[in-house]
Design a protein that fits this description.
Layout (H helix, E strand, L loop, with lengths): L1 H45 L10 H9 L14 H15 L3 E3 L14 E3 L8 H12 L6 H9 L15 H11 L6 E5 L2 E5 L5 H15 L12 H12 L3 H5 L4 H15 L3 H5 L6 H11 L1
Antiparallel strand pairs: 1-2, 3-4
Keywords: Golgi apparatus, Lipid-binding, Membrane
Subcellular location: Golgi apparatus, Golgi stack membrane; Golgi apparatus, trans-Golgi network membrane
GO biological process, one term: Golgi vesicle budding
Length: 293
Amino acid sequence: MTSLTQRTSGLVQRRTEAIRSAAADKERESDGEEDEARRGEEEDEDKGDSKETRLTLMEEVLLLGLKDREGYTSFWNDCISSGLRGCMLVELALRGRLQLEACGVRRKSLLSRKVICKSDAPTGDVLLDEALKHIKETQPPETVQSWIELLSGETWNPLKLHYQLRNVRERLAKNLVEKGVLTTEKQNFLLFDMTTHPLTNSTIKQRLVKKVQDSVLEKWVNDPHRMDKRVLALILLAHSSDVLENAFAPLQDDQYDLGMKRVHTLLELEPEKESAKPNANELMWAVVAAFTK
């Protein structure tokens, strides 16, 4: 009887140790995946620029739209406001904070699917964190089109006006001032004074313009899914914000024509089809669909 008890006790002990070992392995695996995801995000953020001059999609689009000497965007540009809100959604998606809800068996269209908060970890950017907080706390969830309108303040519902992100261009310009790209000045426009942000670091602006130009000229791959996701998003969102033309203005006529022709091939893509391809960022294509519908 004693030996049977000992054998049973040994068996239970070995099972317990095996369970503990499996649990430990699983925990190590999980930690490894988290570390890898974190490293991936850091690598993405470190690409190309140093930490001091790393720009978000919103800052890049604004920088393309700003007049270098005058320090403000064109008064005739009525697209950049909503374009910058689209940039926020895509930036949050590329950083792993947002995603679209599952499309389901009947496969809903991109514009009818809701935006879901995947992670509420702070991004370190005040505007992005503010937008993320709104999206996380809103129930039921809203679509991409709705969020662009809500964050822009373009809603007729007075109960939803608190979602509007105010002074976005000014706040982004101040970010660029802190990063040493712009400076701050006061300009007199006859009836009023206006704060402007002329360019001080032309190297960073030139690097940004060259990145856009090279993506459709020297580094053109003729397949959007082989392009860097951030660069692809920058081109599409800069066009939606009506500032892409500024990046191609310095080009020779033949290069300009070739670059614009290739941009148009990207603009003619069908977001629904592109989002269904492997490794596609669905939320980015939903934002594109919202601007091209």
